[in-house]
Design a protein that fits this description.
The protein is α/β, with parallel strands linked by helices and 240 residues long. It has one domain (13-162, 206-239): Vaccinia Virus protein VP39 (Rossmann fold, 3-Layer(aba) Sandwich). The protein has eight helices and seven strands. The protein has a seven-stranded mixed β-sheet with strand order 3-2-1-4-5-7-6, with helices on both faces. Strand 6 (221-228) and strand 7 (233-239) form a beta hairpin. The radius of gyration is 17 Å and the shape is globular.
């Protein structure tokens, strides 16, 4: 059974995820940095380093949200970055941010669905995703459509939460994720479900080797996983 933000609603996970991010979009950046104690910024920098040797010129940031990962990817000096997200609310916050930073000519944000990406085959040199794949309604289909629009030889870099396994970090992490984080998230975002869904979706996500197997199943090769901060998050890479 799929983990969804609003268990009392009959709508699909895709629709619920869009609604949830629309609801929390104005407070999302604040909460992201606050709840991760700012370490999410370091994680993005580490993930982007995995594309340095490739020097991609056209990058897609899938599930771009408010465009933080897209902005980080500019350190690679690409010609263009296109961010795609299912939530218009998040994209609007991202567009304001880009205008303020005078980056709106280098990064374009577009409404779109991971399972039906609005681009032709073999377009992008690289595809990046930060904390987005676990929100896909159909994980395999989303990864397969990313594979479709990636150029042969192109690289995918996925940054996602994972589950620490070492004592006592595992216990501390579970307590923070299940008790503290939902409480802070609820108070600041005013959304009762969004930050309960977060730990539930992380728990349900096939991390580590299980995710590498999904990448391989849909066609990626040269797959690898690197854990960060004692396994709190992981960087996954693969090539078409």
């Amino acid at each position: 059974m799929a983990v969804v933000p609003y268990k009392d609603q009959k709508s699909s996970k895709k629709e619920q995820v869009a609604t949830m991010f629309n609801n929390i979009s104005k407070r999302y950046d604040l909460l992201n940095h606050l709840l991760s104690l700012g370490i999410d910024i370091y994680w993005r920098k580490q993930a982007i380093k995995h594309l340095k040797a490739d020097q991609p010129q056209l990058i897609m940031d899938m599930a771009t949200g408010t465009a933080d990962f897209a902005i980080e990817s500019l350190s690679l000096n690409p010609q263009k970055v296109i961010g795609v997200d299912i939530s218009e609310g998040m994209l609007e916050v991202g567009r304001k941010k880009l205008r303020k930073m005078k980056l709106d000519q280098r990064i374009e944000l577009k409404l779109g669905d991971s399972e039906r990406i609005p681009f032709d085959d073999n377009i992008f040199d690289a595809i990046i995703v930060a904390f987005g794949v676990r929100n896909f309604e159909n994980l395999e289909q989303g990864l397969a459509d990313m594979y479709r629009v990636l150029k042969p030889g192109g690289k995918v870099v996925v940054l996602e939460f994972s589950k620490p396994t070492v004592f006592p970090l595992k216990q501390l992490y579970n307590f923070y994720f299940k008790s503290i984080l939902p409480l802070i998230g609820r108070i600041i975002s005013k959304d009762q479900s969004a930050y309960t869904y977060l730990p539930e979706s992380v728990q349900a996500f096939p991390d580590g080797n299980a995710f590498l197997e999904v990448l391989q199943k849909v066609g990626y090769h040269e797959t690898a996983c690197k854990t960060l901060t004692f396994g709190v998050s992981s960087i996954y890479t693969g090539r078409k």
